[in-house]
């Protein structure tokens, strides 16, 4: 007999995107260049951005730049939002491109064309009864701040971010009541280029620069929380974590301890600072052993303590398995966060291990540690989709993936976890962040756009579109 799950009546079902991966129009409306605009397309992207000393330059003779055009949401937002509404979305997670509002990032006055664009987008959402869930910074800081200031290495960027956030709160205070500060903030420990806007020159400085940059973001996040509560008292503002539970490869205490340390470092530093308002105890030893000396100004820790976030949002794609001593043969290809192959799990077309039970584990871990509401704002399956002769897309593999994770959510709610909502990643096909590919499709809606840049941009409903529509209409009772 199929089990039926009871989701809260006000549960926020929806979908998630990011400006740099779907808007396109990268130089329209007064927008300045940003980080995503210099990211090349294809699997070469991951190799280039993983190496030290990425130069943040465009070379069209060697690479393509799919984010420049993406899927043209900038001009087609009304059509796309109408499709989301047809599915029944209660919320739509999107981000604002910082360089649409402040093209260089350090201006004193914002770009009105950029502000007006998001007015139109939010109005379209609200027209359909859909709450915007807005990420303030999602892997796309202005390129000028990277080149002239060194990204989040520079403390000056705190001031620029605060000005940007305050501008958003004042402009959209009557339209947006759910906010997130930094997308996957803890991902910086593995790949600082995305969230911190710099590529360390040497391995010797990587940890020092990364944790200094993270400290600047922690202060900036707290200042954004302060401003949000003052300007929009009824709003809620959360942090956003890239969460992956870390399993020990076996019961060897050496491996269990190693997995525990990896989990602490990746999953809990950013959460503890933004929710508990303080650095966790284990960082004292970690910083000492790795010669990390964070430059903190007077009042930083007080600001962090005084202005914690209201809730935790998270992305969940996979778990991670670790052991102390590993060889290249042990590793699972595709997992961005490394880890060894888990013999109990299958993997996606891109090598990401699929672990729905890990989501239940994650939600319990987070809620037990923090006791604040949780919101899953990314989860999904990147896969190759095939158009049938009649033009349909039969993506049962995506439905099965999402069904398993929604069941895990239902179990976690029964476990006592307070869960606000669920916005699967890439509710419409868009440019992959890690590889810059269109062929790595996540959406309920197919977009006729391909890795070589060809395509009509026509939107087509996949089988999963109708399945998710029914999930929402039954509030998760029919999966």
TrEMBL record:
<protein>
    <submittedName>
        <fullName>6-phospho-beta-glucosidase</fullName>
    </submittedName>
</protein>
<dbReference type="Pfam" id="PF00232">
    <property type="entry name" value="Glyco_hydro_1"/>
</dbReference>
<keyword id="KW-0326">Glycosidase</keyword>
<comment type="similarity">
    <text>Belongs to the glycosyl hydrolase 1 family.</text>
</comment>
<dbReference type="GO" id="GO:0016052">
    <property type="term" value="P:carbohydrate catabolic process"/>
</dbReference>
<dbReference type="InterPro" id="IPR001360">
    <property type="entry name" value="Glyco_hydro_1"/>
</dbReference>
<dbReference type="GO" id="GO:0005829">
    <property type="term" value="C:cytosol"/>
</dbReference>
<keyword id="KW-0378">Hydrolase</keyword>
<feature type="active site" description="Nucleophile">
    <location>
        <position position="378"/>
    </location>
</feature>
<dbReference type="InterPro" id="IPR033132">
    <property type="entry name" value="GH_1_N_CS"/>
</dbReference>
<dbReference type="InterPro" id="IPR018120">
    <property type="entry name" value="Glyco_hydro_1_AS"/>
</dbReference>
<dbReference type="InterPro" id="IPR017853">
    <property type="entry name" value="GH"/>
</dbReference>
<dbReference type="GO" id="GO:0008422">
    <property type="term" value="F:beta-glucosidase activity"/>
</dbReference>
């Amino acid at each position: 007999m199929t089990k039926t799950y009871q989701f809260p009546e006000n549960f926020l079902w929806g979908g998630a995107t990011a400006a740099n991966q779907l808007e396109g129009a990268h130089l329209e409306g007064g927008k300045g260049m940003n980080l995503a605009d210099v990211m090349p397309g294809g699997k070469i992207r991951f190799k280039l951005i993983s190496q030290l000393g990425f130069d943040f330059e465009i070379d069209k003779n060697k690479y393509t730049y799919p984010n420049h055009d993406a899927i043209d949401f900038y001009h087609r937002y009304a059509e796309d939002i109408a499709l989301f509404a047809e599915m029944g979305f209660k919320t739509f997670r999107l981000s604002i491109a910082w360089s649409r509002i402040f093209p260089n990032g350090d201006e004193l006055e914002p770009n009105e064309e950029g502000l007006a664009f998001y007015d139109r987008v939010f109005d379209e959402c609200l027209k359909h009864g859909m709450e915007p869930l807005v990420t303030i910074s999602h892997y796309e800081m202005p390129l000028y701040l990277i080149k002239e200031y060194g990204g989040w290495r520079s403390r000056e960027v705190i001031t620029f971010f605060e000005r940007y956030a305050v501008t958003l709160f004042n402009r959209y205070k009557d339209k947006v009541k759910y906010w997130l500060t930094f997308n996957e903030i803890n991902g910086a420990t593995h790949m600082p280029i995305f969230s911190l806007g710099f590529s360390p020159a040497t391995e010797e400085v990587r940890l020092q620069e990364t944790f200094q940059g993270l400290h600047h973001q922690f202060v900036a996040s707290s200042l954004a929380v302060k401003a949000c509560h003052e300007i929009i008292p009824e709003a809620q503002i959360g942090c956003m974590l890239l969460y992956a539970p870390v399993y020990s490869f076996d019961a060897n205490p050496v491996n269990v301890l190693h997995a525990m340390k990896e989990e602490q470092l990746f999953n809990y530093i950013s959460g503890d600072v933004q929710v508990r308002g303080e650095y966790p105890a284990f960082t004292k030893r970690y910083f000492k052993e790795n010669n990390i000396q964070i430059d903190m100004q007077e009042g930083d820790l007080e600001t962090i303590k005084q202005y914690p976030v209201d809730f935790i949002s998270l992305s969940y794609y996979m778990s991670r398995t670790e052991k102390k001593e590993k060889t290249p043969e042990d590793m699972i290809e595709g997992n961005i966060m490394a880890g060894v192959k888990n013999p109990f799990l299958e993997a996606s077309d891109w090598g990401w291990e699929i672990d729905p039970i890990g989501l239940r584990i994650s939600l319990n871990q987070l809620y037990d540690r923090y006791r604040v509401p949780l919101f899953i704002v990314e989860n999904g399956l990147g896969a190759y989709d095939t158009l049938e002769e009649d033009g349909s897309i039969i993506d049962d593999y995506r439905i099965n993936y999402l069904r398993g994770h929604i069941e895990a959510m239902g179990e976690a709610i029964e476990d006592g976890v307070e869960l606000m909502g669920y916005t699967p990643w890439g509710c419409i096909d868009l440019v992959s962040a890690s590889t810059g590919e269109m062929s790595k499709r996540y959406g309920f809606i197919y977009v006729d756009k391909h890795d070589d840049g060809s395509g009509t941009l026509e939107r087509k409903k996949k089988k999963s579109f109708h399945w998710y529509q029914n999930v929402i209409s039954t509030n998760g009772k029919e999966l």
